[in-house]
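Quick bug: Myb/SANT-like DNA-binding domain-containing protein output formatted oddly.
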Amino acid sequence: MDAEKKKRRSNWDSSEISLLRQLVEKNLFTIRSKLSNSLTNKAKIEVWRRITVQINALGLHGRTVAEVKVKLQNMQSNAKKTYHDVQKHTHQTGGRPPATPINQESQKIIEMMKDTSSFVGLTGEESPVDEVVYDSAEKLPINIDGEEIDEDQASLPPTPVQPIISISMLDKDKDPLLPVNPQKRPLKSFSCPIIEKKIKPEDVVVKQHEV
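Here's what came back:
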């Protein structure tokens, strides 16, 4: 039922495709503008309206603005894939041309869009290893030991280096933390005075009896 209600749109003719590419190239600055203010949005709407009118002026098919935008997206997507397939083939074969030549419209779209950010690199496309390693090594800072450190570590103040001091360089007499060998002190001698005792006659008698 839906297929019967919705009439299938006609395929795009080569003249329509060529004219669409030419008109987009003329108005590329406005179409690619990233500004989103009211004046820019109005300018974009007007550009797409004029492009659609000129395509319909060919008298082939009645295209809507939405159809024209979708067609351009499909053309860019196909050209983008072709561009990266060619780059990959050239890298693998050492510069040999691809077996299937690129059609004229795709080649012109590639030349027109290859410098845009949306056209460079497909999702999952790997970059050459040499370029990645070189860029990373060039941006990473290096510490005094020649080791790479990340940006967070590089922002921290450097750790002060403690000097190496041998014990022979220190003054043992002034440093209280160093062990000191106790010195033997000479013993002092003390002399006691001699007190003379007087002998009494009775003491002599006692001594005689003891003998």
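Actually, after a second look the formatting is fine. Residues 75 and 106 are 7 Å apart (CA to CA). Closing.
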